[in-house]
Design goal:
elongated, mainly alpha, 5 helices, binds protoporphyrin IX containing FE, 161 residues
Length: 161
C-alpha cells in the first residue's frame, strides 16, 4: 500500500485532495476580495474558472485512486493501530455528512459558473443576473467550505485521531 506525503497511512491522491481542500479556502477569499473590494470582475471570473478546473481534475483523479486502492475502508485498514468498530462507525458517519456537501458542491458550482458565463456581459460586470449570481455564489462558497471542513474531519478521524 502506498503512503501519502503527509505522513499517515493514506494515499498520495487522498493527501493531495486534502491539501487542495485547505488551499481552496484562501483562494476563494482572494476571489471574493477581488470582486467585493477591488471590483475586478475579470480576475474574479478567471480565478473561479481556474479553481473549478483544478478541483474537478483533482477530485476525478482522487475518485479513480480510491477505487484502485480498493475503497476507503481498505485504505483506512492499513493504519496501525487499527480503528475499533466504534471508531470506524464514527468515520463512516462523518463520511456520509461529507458526501452530502461533496456531491452538491460541484452541481451548485457548475450551475453558478454556467449561468454566469451565459448571462453576464463580456467582460463580466454587474447586470440583471447579479442578484441570482450573488445568491448562488454565496451558497456555493458555503457548500465548498462545508465540504472542506467535513473532508478534513474525515481525514482526521480516519488517519490521525
Ligand atoms: C462557482 C463560481 C463562482 C462563485 C462561487 C462566485 C461567487 C460570487 C459571489 C459570492 C459574489 C458576490 C460578492 C458580493 O457579495 O458582493 C460574486 C459576484 C460577482 N461575480 Fe461571481 N462567482 C463565481 C463565478 C463567476 C463567474 C464565472 C463570473 C463571470 C462570468 C462571475 C462574475 C461575477 C460578477 C460580475 C460579480 C459582481 C456582481 C455585482 O456586484 O453585481 N462570477 N461572485
Amino acid at each position: 500500500m502506498s503512503h501519502g506525503f503527509l505522513g499517515y497511512s493514506s494515499t498520495f491522491m487522498l493527501d493531495f485532495v486534502v491539501t487542495a481542500l485547505v488551499l481552496i479556502v484562501p483562494a476563494l477569499l482572494a476571489s471574493l476580495y477581488l470582486v467585493k473590494v477591488r471590483r475586478n470582475y475579470v480576475a474574479h471570473r478567471n480565478l473561479q474558472l481556474v479553481l473549478a478546473g483544478v478541483l474537478l481534475v483533482a477530485v476525478l483523479a482522487f475518485e479513480i485512486d480510491i477505487r484502485m486502492h480498493g475503497g476507503w475502508r481498505a485504505i483506512v485498514g492499513t493504519r496501525t493501530p487499527a480503528l475499533s468498530v466504534e471508531q470506524l462507525e464514527v468515520v463512516e458517519q462523518v463520511l456520509r455528512v461529507h458526501l452530502v456537501f461533496a456531491i452538491s458542491t460541484p452541481l451548485l458550482w457548475g450551475a453558478t459558473i454556467t449561468l454566469a458565463l451565459k448571462r453576464m456581459p463580456k467582460p463580466p460586470a454587474p447586470c440583471e443576473h447579479s442578484r441570482l449570481h450573488k445568491t448562488l455564489g454565496w451558497l456555493s462558497v458555503i457548500d465548498l467550505v462545508l465540504t472542506s471542513v467535513t473532508g478534513l474531519l474525515f481525514y482526521y478521524r480516519a488517519f490521525i485521531a
